Amino acid sequence: MWNSFKEKKQKTKMKTTRIFFLFLILLMAPLSGLAHEIRPAYLQIIQVDEFTYEVYWKVPSMGDAVPKIQLVFPESFALETTKAPNQIPGSVIYYFQMTSNEGLQGQRIFIQGLNKTLIDVLVTVSYLNGEKATLLLQADKDSGILPGETKVGDVIQTYTVLGIEHILLGIDHLLFVLALIMITKGKWRILKTITSFTLAHSITLSLAALGLVKFPGPPVEAVIALSIVFLAMEILKNLKGEATLTSKKPWIVAFTFGLLHGFGFAGALSDIGLPQTEIPLALAFFNIGVELGQIIFVMVMLLVIYLLNFKKHWPGYLRKAPAYAIGSLAAFWMIQRLVGFWD
């Protein structure tokens, strides 16, 4: 009778564990769409003569789904399509010619439907006299006045914000950092590990953004997902008491994979573009924005882990749950990206 009771209890526990894992996976599955899918839109306006402008409107897409956001210029500006939209992986590019007897500087531009999305719009204007302007529009700021020449402060603010938003919306990078924190013990080791990751991805981000090194995006994204699966497996080994390279010297693993993640950041930055007159400044502050976002995430996660540590007697399956959830989601991303690459 006692054995029967134990078997029934064990089966109930196993069933509860399966339901718990399934719930976690279903809960996190929608996040798969956030891993580098919420990319900014890009509007480039080039003045070709006193009354004419070339307009390139690049809108991020998810498969065949394109957000319903539209350009709205003042009535005195006539917008005419010059050729068919160009569907490229992750985006659709629209081509227009715009004419007006009025100057563009000081005019208000509005992005209809932007307030219903999570998309940012980076606007760059190249005037006939060589002046360049940059403007960032967001869901809560879907219109703005087109300035004249871009000021240094505008570049700093725009690219710092873009860097912060990119890391905080880049769920795959955040899961990698979270896994590093879970493996690494001690605040100084965590500091050394995160610093190594930061240094590594700053190097490759800069090299790729400046065009000195180039790797194809889809394979890089797939291997980034694989790096998260690797760390999830390392977490499980540590829970079993096994010593691994990541637990012994996490900064080495962080630096190695950080080089790879830098190419992922560079892919996002290439979608945004850099102002040709302020490339070093924009690149530096995009990187600073990424690091600020990363610091915010690390501090929040350390606080959460500290609070959870008050629970001293977690069941084994609950202690393993984060690793399984992270690994399952990363494996899904990896397969999804490999399929997309071969398509």
Task: Note the topology.
Blueprint: H1 2-28, E1 41-47, E2 52-60, E3 70-72, E4 78-88, E5 91-99, E6 108-112, E7 121-126, E8 132-137, E9 143-145, H2 152-169, H3 171-183, H4 187-209, H5 217-239, H6 245-248, H7 250-272, H8 279-308, H9 316-342
Parallel strand pairs: 1-7
Antiparallel strand pairs: 1-2, 2-5, 3-6, 4-5, 6-9, 7-8
Helix pairs in contact: 1-9, 2-8, 3-5, 3-8, 4-7, 4-8, 5-7, 5-9
Q: What this model shows, in words?
A:
The protein is α+β, with helices and mostly antiparallel strands. The chain has helices at 2-28, 152-169, 171-183, 187-209, 217-239, 245-248, 250-272, 279-308, 316-342; strands spanning 41-47, 52-60, 70-72, 78-88, 91-99, 108-112, 121-126, 132-137, 143-145. The strands form 2 sheets. A 6-stranded mixed beta sheet has the order 4-5-2-1-7-8. It has a 3-stranded antiparallel beta sheet with strand order 3-6-9, with no helix packed on it. Helix 4 (187-209) packs parallel to helix 7 (250-272) and helix 5 runs antiparallel to helix 9 (316-342).
The structure class reads alpha+beta
Helix percent reads 40-55%
N-C termini distance: 58 Å
Strand order of the largest sheet: 4-5-2-1-7-8
- N to C succession of SSEs: HEEEEEEEEEHHHHHHHH
The residue-averaged pLDDT reads 81
Share of β-strand residues: 15-25%
> What Rg, in angstroms, do the CA atoms define?
24 Å
Unreliably modeled segments: 12-37
Discrete helix count = 9
Q: How many extended strands?
A: 9
User: How is the biggest beta sheet arranged?
Assistant: 6 strands, mixed
What overall geometry do the principal axes of the alpha carbons give? elongated
